[in-house]
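Quiz preparation item.
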């Protein structure tokens, strides 16, 4: 059975490679990845991160040993238990906290639909755009809601494909092929145009994060879109800055209060 599973994964990987995608996980072990010892393992061809009470003490990340600039990333993930995870990108390590602590953009893997695949910055500027909301951040760091779309629903205890498309300062997140949020970052001082890819293992409530596949396609460098307030769509409005979250990152789901979808 295991041999059959590995053969199917190898076949799938070769098909995606022909489409320009490169598998970052070999289906066998954590070669090419760096994670906190004792938290991550490969079980039956799947990456598994296990979070228990008090371990990790703060959000810990399985970090791919490479950097990306403009790309499309597809990660097939599920979370079992009362917590959440995320796909980190264009990020950097914070070794003063732990060797596996990350600051940077994140595509949320969250059970509360408003947070599912939202645009977020771990240990940085916080939430940019909820699921169903498109956002522009101006050069001064002010958030502008510039669009709205149907909120995408996903049961994260089941397998879902999370996609990030990053070109220039435009970031788009998808779940199972449906766009959840587009974010354009004009905050030159704080934005990142390249960095690390990682998978989050959240501190707090016990749970397990499973990753079946991570695929990467490198894209040609996209343009850095300029900010022009006069060119914002009609009806665009300022968004209040979200509350600062704890040092552990996003709160567990039970502590989240989701805003109503308009």
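Solution:
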């Amino acid at each position: 059975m295991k041999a059959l599973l590995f053969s199917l994964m190898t076949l799938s990987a070769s098909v995606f490679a022909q489409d320009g995608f490169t598998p970052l996980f070999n289906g066998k072990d954590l070669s090419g990845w760096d994670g906190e010892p004792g938290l991550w393992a490969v079980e039956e061809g799947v990456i598994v991160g296990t979070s228990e009470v008090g371990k990790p003490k703060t959000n810990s990340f399985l970090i791919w040993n490479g950097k990306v600039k403009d790309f499309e990333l597809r990660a097939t993930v599920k979370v079992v238990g009362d917590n959440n995870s995320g796909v980190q990108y264009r990020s950097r390590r914070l070794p003063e906290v732990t060797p596996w602590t990350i600051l940077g953009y994140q595509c949320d893997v969250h059970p509360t639909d408003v947070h599912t695949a939202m645009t977020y910055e771990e240990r940085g500027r916080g939430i940019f755009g909820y699921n169903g909301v498109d956002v522009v951040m101006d050069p001064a760091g002010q958030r502008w809601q510039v669009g709205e779309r149907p909120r995408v629903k996903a049961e994260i205890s089941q397998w879902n494909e999370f996609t990030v498309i990053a070109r220039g300062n435009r970031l788009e997140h998808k779940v199972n092929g449906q766009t959840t949020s587009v974010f354009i970052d004009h905050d030159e001082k704080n934005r990142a145009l390249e960095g690390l890819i990682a998978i989050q293992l959240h501190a707090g409530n016990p749970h397990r994060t499973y990753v079946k596949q991570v695929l990467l396609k490198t894209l040609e460098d996209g343009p850095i879109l300029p900010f022009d307030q006069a060119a914002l769509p009609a009806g665009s409005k300022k968004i209040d800055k979200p509350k600062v979250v704890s040092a552990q990152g996003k709160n567990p789901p039970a502590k989240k209060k989701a805003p109503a979808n308009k």
